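Quick entry, no commentary yet.
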Amino acid sequence: MSDLASHISSVENAHPDAAIIVLGDFNHTNLSTELPNYHQQVTCPSRGNTLDHCYTPLKEAYRASAGAPLGNGLKTRNPILFSCCLVLVGSCILLYLRYLANFVPVDNLPANREGKLRRIINLDDTLHFGARQGVETCTSWKAPIIWEGMFESDLYDQKHIQNQTSVALTVFAVGRYLDAYLKTFLTSAEQHFMLGLKVTYYVFTDLPEKVPSIELAPNRNVKIMQVEKHSRWQDISMMRMKTISDAIESDIHHHCNYVFCFDVDQEFKGRFGSEALGDSVALLHAWYYNAPNNSYTYDRNPRSKAFMETGDYYYHAAVFGGLLEKVKNLTDYCFLNIMEDKLNNVEALWHDESHLNKYFWINKPSRLLSPEYCWDQVIMEKSDINIMRLIWAPKDYVGLRPLATKNTN
């Protein structure tokens, strides 16, 4: 029984949103002794005086009642047919529970069942993929592309608040970028980013004493992390991958379960909420989301580790995120490949963004954010953009970037 309980626990960890039902012909034992949160659903004899077992984590998942026997000694006469019937019944129960989870209004559930049923809801099953005409809402590998009008924000917020989700936001403000952008970035984030959730802003800067003080809501705080200032802006951009990975390992994993990484020269303008959270999250680049694949600016240099002949989409490195372990895998991958390029005297076309695109080509993201989540107002054609959640700030590369030089690789 302990082996069965261990296997069930591993299934729960691998599929936290699944409705789990345990059926079995183990009449002389009790699963609840090993897993107290699992409840026996069969309360009346199913065969003579025998009480078959059916366990679920939902105490009142369904009501058992006696009915006419299924055949005459079916289990004895045809055990294969009996097993098929048992599997069929279990599958029907599972489908019915999933139906209830997705279509019964959660706010109308009895209070003692509401929390448990919320946990088995797969919120992405509630996405309205047909709500947006003219734009792609799902990838070929079935990852959702999040646009305004596709999601019920209250459902996502309630689930993440209930699960006590905590989010780390990383941002780099080095050199002149601190004075130019950081205060606007942080104050606008407080108005729009993951409201209602626990958020820690990790500000990486070479000038910790100049980080502005801003008013923060409850359960939100700022951590200032001092970093080295590199002589070239390209190195600042590329070395952030190692810095983020190191911060996840040394600090962030103690406090948060999700990480979102942002460029500082941006301003939040609308809700950037829990609907954006996922295992591995990538952002469609505003300039390329509806452009042909052959126009994507992948690194075309075969000498670079970022080299790509083709890909799925062009992703913008100004925003990426996901679960801690997923973001750490991404940043470690990018850093190691950046360093290998350096050893070969190669620099990818768009630096860390080129390596990020290569990573997401190999390791498909589980969630894509539409360009509503990072829009450039210079783009005149914006009929697809119902809301600008985050916008690019005006750029002054000559005045802000140290030794801004043309990339010749």
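second:
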Amino acid sequence: MKLTYLCMYGRGYVTFDLVWLGVFILFSLQTTISPVIGVYTLTVHKYSSNMKAGLLGMLHSPPCATSVPLRHVRARVTCSSSSGHISFIKDVAATQPPENLQHLLKMLQTRGETIVSPGSRHGLIPLAIPLSENMSGSMTALLRWPTAPPGMEMPVVEVRKHGVWLLANNVDQYIHRILVEEDADESHGSDGELFHASSEAGKKLYTRGDFAESKISNLDGYLLKKVGLFPDLLERKVMRHFEEGDQVSALVTGEFYTKKDLFPGFGRPFVFNAEILLKVGRASEAKDSARVALKSPWWTLGCTYQDVASIAQWEDEQIEYIKEKVSEEGRQEDLKKGKALAQVALDEAAFMLDLASIDGTWGDYLDRIAECYKEAGLGEIANFILYRD
């Protein structure tokens, strides 16, 4: 398995291979997780003082003289209902819609959120497919990885200025969590509206009353054990350990959070681990964890680039490195080294997304990012990047 931008595609730095064969046991965080045995070959991408890798493989290159400017393509889709989102994902995002997306949209609407057109993407990270917006202005969306491996489901995310926050690894997991939280809240007047809105999907995913019957007093504990792992729950668990004075458990849980197979492509776990290491005075280890985080797409950090660079004890060298890589000189240097043109373009697109995330200026980079994907042979992704209502 290649450690890449989405855990599958490298960014093309000086590389070295680390091959390990291991039997590892995913231990319980008040959860019961079966032992998993795995054999992995990891290709770790690294560059001197500029550590950077990721899970996605997005690159961009400056338009060449013979390139044809991309138009802001508008596919004919209806976006006022779940059918609009489904057709948008098929026809514009060029991927398979989640099976139970229509049920999730109904649930979001039932809990008071406004359904948003999937093409209403002005000012957003161009990989997001909007679903809904709540009264506080928070937007829930699907994340369309440009180079996701076959069979990988689209994560559910919250869209933020500098990128996204992972809510769930897939739609079914998010539906399941919402249903459990509603069931646990029945004592406060919940009447099962969301369960009814979930229709057949809800019946397959959760049996009402199971939380009470489980005798697990802590809702977070039930979710982690019965539903799945979620970034906010793991972070809350760590902080609860600190509150209880159990520093060892806090650090162990923080380390577990960074397992690469849990939240592939996201740098947030490494950022949080760096923060807690810093909290206990382990600055050197915190620096290392922050630098690993910055190998992931910067828009997956869950905070600003500057916050993480500070822990990593880096100033602007990472930004300057990227700017050099996306220059014509950097492009030609990569080509002279024998890197394929498509890979150079993909790397450039990834770098441009990182640069855009620093200030959240996504619109300034759209045309160039789309041109890169087109040059890499991903015309459908290029059209998706540019699409706006």
